UniProtKB/TrEMBL annotation:
The keyword Protein biosynthesis does not apply. One of its GO terms (cellular component) is nucleus. It is found in: Nucleus. This is ARM repeat superfamily protein. Belongs to the SAAL1 family. It comes from the Eukaryota. Keywords: Nucleus.
Length: 289
């Protein structure tokens, strides 16, 4: 009922009713301390409704929630869920994990709090870890939500890319998420955005070849996924899809920018591969001589 109210025409009234600190503290306390999966799901869904409600309602609730420690609560909840999954302990399910990540995603889009969220390397690291375990059955859809959150945080703090630049497992699982994001343009753009930032860094990196070896191996082994994604969305990416309608000139500019970014990312992937092959060949020649 509360979640529905926050997405209704009466959202502002509901937000004002929920705004008192003791109410917000109670909801957050339940989310942080309950051992009941259903209660955890309901409390996190309510928190999501608060931060992702209609604009004015969200503006009413987000500042006090952040002040009361919502970002810290997110990292604690994510840590618990990820630990449970990695250690084989029964977790609360992918619905709860996905909801927690969606709360982070909503906060990462809040103008006055996105930078604060991006400054927390722990939250970024946990979102990346969700992607790295996204091959597990217990994770599923949250892998996509985590990728969107990672993209949003990187948009606020570019230096965070250093945390994953040479992480082959992260790259592998990120690429393996492409088919799952096929029908979600926003998620697909987020995945390509993260890939773009990774290969921006790799293209200019002066690290030793050994650091890039695993990444190159992943890129080669997953190249079919990249090709399939681009081929499946060729008309969409080039603007030839008749289903795409632009309401204003800025939409066209954004669309073109994203398309050029994807092409640029592929170009950088090829450059990294070519550079690695060239260096390996030079090394082989030196060894023979």
């Amino acid at each position: 009922l509360l979640s529905a109210g926050l997405h209704s025409e009466e959202a502002n009234s509901w937000a004002e009713a929920l705004k008192p600190e003791q109410i917000l503290r109670r909801v957050m306390w339940i989310a942080a301390n309950t051992m009941n999966s259903q209660l955890l799901q309901k409390s996190t869904e309510l928190l999501l409704a608060m931060v992702d409600s209609q604009k004015e309602a969200a503006l009413t609730l987000i500042p006090p929630l952040v002040y009361l420690g919502l970002p810290e609560l997110l990292t604690d909840l994510l840590t618990c869920e990820i630990t449970a999954i990695t250690e084989g302990i029964p977790a609360h399910g992918d619905v709860v994990l996905d909801t927690i990540l969606q709360i982070g995603e909503a906060l990462s889009l809040a103008d006055k709090h996105s930078q604060e969220l991006a400054s927390d390397k722990k939250l970024f690291g946990l979102a990346c870890k969700v992607i790295k375990i996204s091959g597990k059955d217990e994770v599923g859809p949250p892998g996509i939500t985590a990728a969107v959150l990672v993209a949003n945080l990187l948009a606020e703090e570019e230096k965070l890319i250093d945390e994953i630049l040479y992480d082959a497992k992260f790259l592998q699982n990120l690429l393996q998420l492409l088919p799952s994001a096929s029908d979600d343009p926003g998620a697909r753009n987020a995945l390509w955005s993260v890939l773009g930032r990774m290969f921006d860094g790799l293209e200019t990196s002066q690290e030793m070849q050994a650091s890039k070896r695993e990444l190159v191996s992943v890129l080669v082994s997953q190249s079919d996924l990249i090709a399939e994604d681009l081929d499946d969305h060729r008309e969409e990416d080039t603007g030839e899809d008749e289903k795409i309608h632009f309401s204003k000139q800025s939409d066209i500019a954004t669309f073109n920018k994203r398309f050029k970014a994807k092409i640029g990312t592929v170009s950088k992937m090829i450059h990294v591969l070519d550079d690695w092959i060239k260096t390996e060949e030079e090394s082989s020649v030196q060894d023979l001589s």
